[in-house]
Write a structure and sequence with these properties.
Distance between the termini: 60 Å
Number of helices: 20
Radius of gyration: 23 Å
Shape: globular
Strand content: under 5%
Order of helices and strands: HHHHEHHHHHEHEHHEEEHHHHHHHH
Length: about 550
């Protein structure tokens, strides 16, 4: 960083509390180069980290909780069956939980997935772009990795976004197709990895709540993100997938996340007081509860992760695990009697519980799928079982070996087993799978192996809702419970056999402020509505029956 670019005010100098007398005398401006960089970019970088999956300070009360409801809890996490809701929001004309994509809610979602991140990232990018100073390049590399982690969620929810033109200063920037976004993101991750692999010291350590400024761990995360994206596209661009899977797994590039100590997560710490943003919806609003789909898998497989993920509820005096279907017909209630959805199982979170960006178990499942489709060398069964074992370890559990020998299926979703919600039934057993790798019900073993990989990945990803929703839309797995509200599919222009929305649509405000939004249908390959499939969806995605 070139000091001559900056003149510090007395107020700015007062903010620097960590320098001692020797540091102050290193240059005429009274601060070291490292402290100057931290002062200029640290706050923006901290803010970016809070925007990947919404989280914030306890002083912000329910603000981050409302944001997370919009992105994960009453939308993606409900569609995929991680969560059910003690509310149907009918008095508000329905919200995204019931597949009603109102303009104000879609505008809010675009802010949460994209715009809020942009403001902080651009503060860093606008000052460091084009710099040849190694310290500047390292800071920008970190900012770009976090930006991609956040905006990957944005493109996986909306499709086209402004990416290659971001930060150019255009009042009305042009959007990119998802195909272009993915290609450019992976190239940008490779560039960031190349920069950070040369780093010999911490980068923004005082402001990094993920890895404490450790560039080697940021490299592992960037390569793991690259692997996630590359595996995602193999059904539609095998060559692109092969190129970046190879690059991500090349040990000379720094490796990927291999154990829990390297996983990317954000939580309360001495460095930054944070409050798990699920709590507002779980406790203060009394709305977010266990979903019927994950209930069916966890109970049917007798999966010990159920006690880590959820708390027991009480129904007719019986303490047990109870889930709620998506798009529930029940209005909000504040008591736990037998007729109320309030009694259902709560997510097991506290103020210090982390939100996970990426875990080691996911990386193992990504490798399993890559092996299954000959995109890397190895045995898919080995990585599949390693993914399950890693997920058990991540959750402080043993017994993965016994679990992997089970030939059981998920619990059925119907009156007999879901008596706390007797009006709801959904096909979930037909064509479903068990945890045991070589237990098959058809002759198409490769397809069943993919189903096993994605089903166990779904259970390991919890509560990373957008990622689970994305994998369902891409592959058709795991099988999920249908919406209880049978009119929900029509609200997004879908047929009655649609089990989950394909995407969010853009709100009217985006169209009124950017004339280039007219290109969205062309970039999307269909109408801007919730039933239009995104680019990475496999052409032979199975239809759940």
């Amino acid at each position: 960083m070139k000091l001559k670019k900056y003149i510090l005010s007395l107020a700015s100098l007062a903010l620097i509390t960590s320098c001692d007398y020797e540091d102050i005398n290193t240059n005429i401006y009274g601060v070291s180069d490292e402290e100057l960089g931290a002062l200029l970019y640290g706050t923006s970088f901290m803010d970016m980290q809070q925007k990947v999956i919404p989280i914030g300070s306890p002083t912000l009360t329910t603000g981050p909780g409302n944001d997370l409801q919009n992105t994960d809890l009453i939308s993606s996490g409900t569609y995929i069956g991680y969560f059910g809701n003690n509310n149907n929001w009918a008095g508000a004309g329905y919200l995204e939980a019931n597949w009603n994509f109102q303009d104000n809610r879609m505008n809010y979602a675009y802010e949460n997935f994209y715009s809020k991140m942009y403001q902080s990232w651009n503060t860093i990018y606008s000052k460091l772009k084009g710099s040849e100073e190694p310290a500047d390049q390292e800071i920008l590399a970190l900012a770009n990795i976090v930006k991609i982690a956040g905006w990957l969620r944005a493109t996986d929810v909306f499709g086209p976004i402004v990416y290659t033109n971001a930060g150019n200063g255009d009042i009305a920037p042009k959007l990119d197709s998802q195909q272009v976004v993915y290609k450019t993101m992976m190239a940008d991750l490779a560039d960031a990895v190349a920069v950070l692999n040369k780093s010999t010291s911490k980068v923004l350590g005082d402001y990094d709540v993920i890895y404490n400024g450790n560039p080697a761990n940021w490299v592992r995360f960037a390569n793991s993100l690259m692997l996630r994206m590359a595996v995602r596209v193999h059904f539609v661009d095998n060559a692109l997938a092969q190129e970046y899977i190879t690059k991500a797994l090349d040990v000379k590039n720094g490796g990927v996340i291999e154990d829990a100590s390297q996983e990317a997560k954000i939580q309360n710490s001495d460095k930054m007081p944070l409050l798990n943003s699920m709590l507002a919806s779980v406790d203060e609003y009394g709305e977010t509860r266990m979903g019927a789909t994950i209930w069916a898998y966890l109970t049917g497989y007798n999966d010990p992760r159920i006690a880590v993920y959820f708390k027991k509820g009480t129904f007719y005096g019986e303490e047990n695990y109870y889930g709620l279907p998506q798009a529930s017909s029940f209005g909000k209630q504040w008591n736990d009697n037998a007729a109320s959805p309030y009694f259902a199982s709560k997510p097991n979170v506290n103020s210090n519980s982390p939100l996970y960006w990426m875990r080691a178990s996911e990386v193992q499942f990504l490798k399993a799928e890559a092996c299954l489709y000959n995109l890397m060398a190895g045995d898919p069964k080995t990585y599949y079982e390693a993914g399950v074992e890693m997920s058990f370890t991540e959750n402080g559990l043993t017994g993965a070996g016994e679990y992997l020998s089970k030939e059981t299926l998920p619990s059925p979703l119907g009156f007999a087993s879901l008596s706390h919600h007797p009006a709801y039934t959904s096909p979930l057993i037909t064509g479903n799978t068990s945890p045991k790798w070589d237990h098959y019900s058809t002759s198409n073993q490769k397809e069943e192996q993919l189903q096993k990989i994605i089903t166990q990945k779904y259970l390991a990803l919890y509560p990373n809702a957008v990622e689970a929703w994305t994998e369902y839309r891409r592959t058709g797995y795991p099988f999920i419970g249908k919406p209880e509200d049978t009119s929900a599919p029509a609200r997004i222009g879908a047929s009655g056999d649609c089990f989950a929305p394909e995407r969010f649509r853009f709100g009217a405000t985006e169209y009124s402020t950017n004339p280039n939004m007219k290109d969205v249908p062309t970039l999307l390959g269909g109408e801007d509505q919730g039933s239009t499939k995104l680019w990475w969806v496999r052409s032979d995605r199975p239809l759940q029956k």
